[in-house]
Specification:
The protein is mostly beta strands. It has 11 helices and 47 strands.
């Protein structure tokens, strides 16, 4: 039968693919391409769980994705993470640094957080440009004795049973495909064991049943001047009766068959009353997604009511494809969302094994393929009986489905767990019942998206020298030991700017100016740091989901503020790590200078450098350090001088007043042999609290900035009272690994503590550098 249909309507297919290559676009295509010329970002955020105690911290990992290219979004580095209460009032906001399209962080829930419902929003500045910004928004809950589950008011409508025509319309005197979806008052699926379509005479026209998600479809011929209703029998014997939506007299219908492995079949039907309005008028089918589109011309023929288009799946886009039929007036008539599953979309990770020791169990995961790709994964480990994780929040659903549909997607793991006929059919049923896509054609035609907001990459300092003789200052110097910065910029008409700075929250920034003679001074300087936090709010209307029952006596669930270290990540830069990081400067020639036994505390570091193989020439504020090695054609060379890892060779005033008492370590290399400075290398590491002394005689004015990147902390777990077994199994967390990396064998290894449980759940989410996504729920038996 399929072969006969394909042959009969081959003229449609041939005509279509000739037109699809035509570079000339009409009003719709031009508006569509213009609307998506700015590529939007989509953010997915995984939290370690969704229900917390007041003594815990919320830990999260965010992934930034380009839906058009289906790859990590690398442009933005400034990521805003905000928490709002149930009324949408901003409680706390932080900024985190994103690299390779990922970032992670945490919020301490000890203060300012009463028991109740909250929202975590993760967004970017660039997202503000779009009519439908795809930030991530997650509801979470703080449980405690003060909160109670919200009681839902009694309602006569105990069930939500919807009849949803495929493509959006039902047509008289034509065969129609109609989807249905049923849920109870709590959003649980209604399983239809037997459904009937009955006409006004009481005849059963069609029968149906639902899948395990309460979704299904049926096909019927709608006769003119007849009425129909549906009777759906549920598992508990309840019968739901619902009339079929009114059929239109004139129009089109669409039905799509996605089950063929190689070909997508699109069936378009009309009736005899409509056909005269279609003849000799151009109609076309757009296949599109995120600014990508292909066009297929439709030609209606006399005496022909049914048309089938066969489209090779290799001509479809990976993932979601939106099929929209337009008439000669550029009006969208029908729309259907389908999903084209390809191997490029999903990356598999499998459980490899476990090893149990006295106090912990080692878990080993392995990537099934593409081992040469960089993979970024986060894992939350909870007891198998946990009630504190949002299972409807997955990276695959957030990136591959949610940006295109208006409704909520339940059980998203079920649609990507494998690639078989049943799973693909269920996914197609889901998309059929979602109706028209999230794109609004009125917005595409009449509300273009304009780039009012820029990508944010780091911070900017803009300032002005506010003195009558501002023209005497030619250069501004910025120094920040906390941020390992030593920069200078030109002053133009008393104004100056530093761009793309990496500044930590609450760090100290010092600024000075150089006059025409090169002398550092401190004129009156006013400056601002951009971007700044804007105190916004969140519209929480229709956002709050029904709360679960709250346990009591949660104070006894956690002992105190003691912490149990699990998987640690070194985030604070200690003296030793700073020295190890920068000891490449000078290579193997580095020699440690004995400061304690050879020199007095008051000896200047410049004098120590002079006594260790270098000439130091001082002329007022001007300082020059030269190697004593034999001259080359360029004369004697200058060494590279580092202060706490920052190159200060051109700002030696910073070390002019340092003494031995201020310095922890000094390393000198008289020659770099090509590894660093040819004239040698000098590494100076100051003691804690002494950096301010490196500012020569207060020639720098210092301020603590109020905005900067928050530094993610190493994960720690509170001291749970694991004797409270029922409470712990529901609300405890065993580990959170935001950045799990492979060993040399490509294995991903982490530990979880041994408590009383037998089974644990691993919630694994991630993204590869090629954009393929990782999403898996693994149940492990440990005992």
């Amino acid at each position: 039968m399929i072969k006969k249909i394909f042959t009969l309507y081959l003229f449609v297919l041939c005509s279509a693919y000739g037109i699809a290559q035509n570079p000339e676009f009409n009003f719709v295509e031009n508006k569509y391409l213009d609307y998506f010329k700015m590529q939007p970002e989509v953010i997915y955020t995984q939290t370690n769980k969704s229900k917390y105690l007041r003594l815990e911290e919320l830990w999260f990992k965010s992934y930034i994705y380009n839906p058009q290219t289906q790859k990590p979004y690398l442009t933005t580095s400034n990521i805003y993470a905000s928490i709002y209460d149930s009324d949408g009032i901003l409680i706390e906001k932080k900024m985190y640094y994103a690299e390779n399209g990922i970032t992670h962080g945490n919020f301490n829930l000890k203060e300012n957080y009463a028991p109740g419902i909250y929202f975590l929003k993760v967004s970017t500045n660039w997202m503000k440009n779009f009519n439908d910004p795809h930030h991530s928004l997650q509801q979470f809950e703080i449980i405690g004795t003060e909160s109670e589950s919200e009681k839902t008011a009694d309602s006569e409508q105990k069930y939500d049973f919807q009849l949803l025509p495929e493509g959006g319309h039902i047509l008289q005197n034509s065969k129609n495909s109609i989807g249905f979806k049923g849920t109870d008052i709590n959003g649980n699926p209604l399983i239809v064991t037997l459904g009937k379509v009955i006409n006004e005479k009481g005849d059963i026209i069609s029968t149906f049943k639902s899948n395990e998600f309460g979704i299904g479809k049926f096909s019927i011929f709608i006769a003119e001047n007849d009425t129909y209703h549906v009777e759906a029998t549920l598992e508990n014997g309840t019968v739901i009766k619902k009339p079929l939506p009114d059929a239109e007299i004139i129009g089109l219908t669409i039905s799509v068959n996605t089950l063929n492995q190689n070909t997508l079949f699109v069936s378009i039907k009309t009736n005899n009353k409509t056909l005269p309005y279609l003849l000799n008028k151009p109609h076309y089918l757009l296949i599109h997604r995120d600014g990508l589109l292909k066009k297929i011309n439709l030609e209606f023929k006399p005496n022909t009511l049914d048309y089938t288009i066969a489209i090779p799946k290799t001509d479809l886009y990976d993932g979601v494809n939106i099929l929209t039929i337009f008439n000669d007036k550029n009006q969208a008539l029908l729309e259907r969302i389908i999903f084209n599953r390809t191997e490029n979309l999903i990356h598999e990770v499998s459980f490899l094994g476990k090893k149990t020791s006295y106090d912990s169990t080692q878990i080993r995961l392995v990537s099934d393929k593409k081992n040469n790709l960089k993979k970024y994964m986060s894992v939350s480990v909870l007891p198998a009986g946990s009630e504190s994780y949002d299972t409807n929040n997955t990276i695959t659903s957030s990136f591959l489905l949610q940006p295109y549909v208006k409704g909520k997607i339940d059980n998203p793991h079920s649609y990507f767990k494998d690639n078989n006929r049943k799973t693909n059919y269920n996914l197609d049923l889901l998309l059929l019942t979602q109706g028209w896509s999230r794109y609004e054609w009125n917005n595409i035609f009449f509300s273009p998206q304009i780039a009012k907001y820029n990508f944010e990459s780091g911070f900017q300092i803009q300032g002005k020298i506010n003195e009558p003789n501002a023209e005497d200052y030619k250069e501004i110097v910025l120094f920040s030991a906390n941020n390992e910065l030593m920069l200078s910029t030109e002053v133009k008409d008393s104004y100056f700017t530093f761009d793309h700075l990496s500044l930590m929250d609450s760090s100290v920034v010092s600024i000075s100016a150089k006059n025409k003679r090169g002398k550092l001074t401190t004129p009156k300087v006013y400056y601002n740091v951009y971007p700044t936090f804007i105190k916004d709010s969140l519209n929480t209307e229709n956002l709050i989901n029904k709360a679960v029952n709250i346990i009591s006596n949660t104070d006894s669930f956690i002992y105190d503020d003691s912490i149990t270290e699990l998987d640690t990540v070194m985030l604070k830069i200690k003296k030793e790590s700073r020295q190890e990081k920068f000891m490449i400067n000078g290579g193997v020639n580095n020699r440690s200078v004995d400061l304690k036994t050879v020199y007095s505390f008051s000896t200047r570091i410049l004098d120590v450098i002079r006594s260790n193989g270098f000439d130091v020439i001082e002329s007022g504020v001007s300082i020059n350090i030269l190697s004593r090695r034999s001259s080359n054609l360029q004369g004697r060379l200058n060494p590279n001088v580092y202060l706490d890892g920052i190159l200060v060779s051109d700002q030696l005033e910073l070390i002019q007043y340092l003494t031995v008492a201020d310095v922890e370590k000094l390393f000198v290399a008289k020659t770099g042999y090509g590894m660093d400075g040819a004239g040698g290398t000098i590494n100076i590491f100051s003691k804690d609290g002494s950096r301010s002394k490196s500012n020569p005689k207060g020639k720098f004015s210092s301020n603590t900035i109020k905005i900067g990147y928050s530094m993610p902390k190493s994960y720690y777990a509170p001291m749970y009272n694991t004797a409270k077994r029922i409470a712990f199994s529901k609300f405890g967390v065993l580990n959170w690994i935001p950045n799990i990396t492979p060993n040399k064998n490509g294995e991903y290894i982490f530990n979880i503590p041994n408590y009383f449980y037998e089974d644990v759940l691993l919630y694994i989410e991630g993204m590869c550098e090629d954009g393929s996504l990782i999403s898996k729920v693994e149940t492990l038996r440990l005992q």
